Amino acid sequence: MPAPLRHKVLLDEDEMPTRWYNILHDLPTPPPPPLHPGTGQPVGPEDLAALFPMDLIAQEVASEQYVDIPEEVQDVYRLWRPSPLFRAHRLEQALGTPARIYYKYEGVSPAGSHKPNTAVPQAYYNARAGIRKLTTETGAGQWGTALAFACAQFDLECEVWQVRASYDAKPYRKIMMETFGATVHPSPSDLTEAGRTMLASDPGSPGSLGLAISEAVEVAAQDATVNYALGSVLNHVLLHQTIIGEEALLQLAKVGESADLIVGCTGGGSNFGGLTFPFLREKLAAGGAGPVIRAVEPASCPSLTQGTYAYDFGDVAGLTPLLKMHTLGHDFIPDPIHAGGLRYHGMSPLISHLYEEGLVEAEARTQRDCFAAGVLFARTEGIVPAPEPTHALAAAVDEAIRCVDTGEEKVILTALCGHGHLDLPAYDAYLRGDLVDHTWEDSELQEAVAAALTRLPAIPG
Amino acid sequence: MPAPLRHKVLLDEDEMPTRWYNILHDLPTPPPPPLHPGTGQPVGPEDLAALFPMDLIAQEVASEQYVDIPEEVQDVYRLWRPSPLFRAHRLEQALGTPARIYYKYEGVSPAGSHKPNTAVPQAYYNARAGIRKLTTETGAGQWGTALAFACAQFDLECEVWQVRASYDAKPYRKIMMETFGATVHPSPSDLTEAGRTMLASDPGSPGSLGLAISEAVEVAAQDATVNYALGSVLNHVLLHQTIIGEEALLQLAKVGESADLIVGCTGGGSNFGGLTFPFLREKLAAGGAGPVIRAVEPASCPSLTQGTYAYDFGDVAGLTPLLKMHTLGHDFIPDPIHAGGLRYHGMSPLISHLYEEGLVEAEARTQRDCFAAGVLFARTEGIVPAPEPTHALAAAVDEAIRCVDTGEEKVILTALCGHGHLDLPAYDAYLRGDLVDHTWEDSELQEAVAAALTRLPAIPG
């Protein structure tokens, strides 16, 4: 009788990494700094102090290679971490591939995604700084849920502006945030100047992530006991997510494997950075030998593959610092695809810089292909993936199918950054054939991006 | 610095139990047999052969103490098993209790509950018997989801009749079944005689679990290549669920603990039996020394605490054998409480027998108390529980609070049989104060049960 197939590679709690990895320490060249939109000069800590506690501001520009994870944060992490690494035997069998597919599964977290990895330390550092309340925005709802849970751990209030279209379409996400104790408003709301301005011009506005950011930032900036929290894009967010990749390195080593290809989906970049940065450290240390590392983005919001590398705002209203990043223009409104977590006009400055340096690849995929991979994955591996990671799954499946022809026993690692339990209407639309794909070949998309890029901010000075 | 708290007790895949435990072997007295409703005589294998494969019929009356789990079933189990045992440190801290609370979490499964533990072997044995399709009913939707997943593993078709009220109120459950490849009909449907009869008399009927069973059984009985699968109540179902308790025994031993109190919710009894039977084996072997074992049922459907121990049908239409069980009457329609999985008029004959023998206790709880415990649990432990296990959580929390006064360091083990991601509207109703509690003191409930009990079937012969 053959030995049983091993599906999961587990780490015990005492094997959980106790440090985050700071890739800034190891980059061949540093990424361009954020600029103050009024002066055109690099922002300093004082420019960020109205929104963030000093510990997080320091992490944003940290130069040491590792940052210790506070004991209090580790204690919360251990509710679900280390997360499992799975070998996708049943998917491989369905494909008949000689490739070996591994997926690092973050859906075991309280929010059902990787987002609590940064929500918990952000809540911790804010609580330690004496902050009473955190505000934030949420689109798909994963980030708002994560922050609601994290705030409950450290006795912080949590106020979330959820993009109106998502607030209406995803009532389950709102209820989950409320169950964790958060207050949730649809955005635009009449609680902020930014919201009221939008409602005055368009009472039926469906909102956007950029506008919801403006509302949450506006409220936080007005009260010294209230801070703002962001779920992706920034350096300290990606830093916190590196625990994913650190665990995956340990888990692959446990089964004597090393990855040939790593694929992750990218919206703001935190899931992708979290998984891949520790592997990039090893690759840089090995003089470039190591896995191919590939970001997969939606074809209808292709910031890496079609955007411009330029200074732009992180939000619609222009309240944030200017970030050097791949962008489609800060007022570009992506298609309402179901992978709401990937509908962001920009890309993390760190990921953008790595892409410019040739250290990561990128490709764009249409959502029907992604859902097809998601359904195949659900029926073979038993997990219904969130729409976001189906982008990476589609890439992994295609690579595994190529290996059927070439016979390569390629080791493919993918980030399964969340489950799709609260995204099931998207599967319903796919199964009924109601999904429409928009690709870069659509002239409307090209024209919308071209127009948004004409409105990139000028750099003063 | 104190040692970090350990939240999870994990087993490796090669520590997964490879046998189910058959409590029939160890009972002081055997439970009364199922009877044929036409003859009043014990049913034989031939009476069940139109619905179930011989392997499962044999397991229904097996006399050996253990049944080997087939390799093919083990391979699917290992997608999520062994499931984690958690120590609820953060809940304990919130309560300030000296009690130690453990929960065995089955929400990591593909369906998000314990149901795949029996769906997978049922699909396997049916596939091995050459069956082409399985039919079943589902109320809350957990069972239908589990069977849909299991059928996908063994290339079986799966056809589910979902109670109309649940079909309309829980669209996410239906989509999840369809994502796993099943076909889902609302019940009553016009596809069966039972459904058409109901629709003729009440075109707007919301359906019931008993009627959906009648529809699924009717379709299976008409085609030799189609069988029926049941998700609770029967001996072979509870047998398959004992892997939960076998794992929990190993996990508690790993941390040097033994339970003083075990609480589990009961609908048909499979979650409760699955966790507790292996502990009952140890208790019987120790001459009765061991944990108190307590079933917790909804106050509005109190089959153990208020029902009659009598022969009754498992379904509304009277298509099943007569089962000796605690029952509220086979045509009793429970309140539409949110714990849909506990809305069943009867109780597993095995659990009913154990209750009569004094080997398990029972209590009934109202849903607002249960949701209060569920919200506290979500905010401390990070998992939003399904409405069903909040009944057991409420009992565990009460016991832990008693320990605050007595100072007892009691070890409480509870079955967290599923997550509540697809039940979030129930939390919304609770948080908004919209839930109504019905207790045994309500005369309407007592009258409805008394009336249903006058319609218990007569035993022929």
Automatic annotation (TrEMBL), chains A, B:
InterPro entries: Trp_synth_b-like, Trp_synth_b_CS, Trp_synth_beta/beta-like, TrpB-like_PALP, TrpB-like_PALP_sf. It catalyses: (1S,2R)-1-C-(indol-3-yl)glycerol 3-phosphate + L-serine = D-glyceraldehyde 3-phosphate + L-tryptophan + H2O. Residues 79-418 form the Tryptophan synthase beta chain-like PALP domain. It holds the Pfam family PALP. Keywords: Amino-acid biosynthesis, Aromatic amino acid biosynthesis, Lyase, Pyridoxal phosphate, Tryptophan biosynthesis. Its EC number is 4.2.1.20. It comes from the Bacteria. Pathway: Amino-acid biosynthesis; L-tryptophan biosynthesis; L-tryptophan from chorismate: step 5/5. Coiled coil: none annotated. Its cofactor is pyridoxal 5'-phosphate. The modification N6-(pyridoxal phosphate)lysine is found at K115. Gene3D superfamilies: 3.40.50.1100. Belongs to the TrpB family. Tetramer of two alpha and two beta chains. NCBIfam families: PRK12391.1 (NF009057), trpB_rel (TIGR01415). The beta subunit is responsible for the synthesis of L-tryptophan from indole and L-serine. This is Tryptophan synthase beta chain. It comes from Fodinibacter luteus. The lineage of its organism: Bacteria, Bacillati, Actinomycetota, Actinomycetes, Micrococcales.
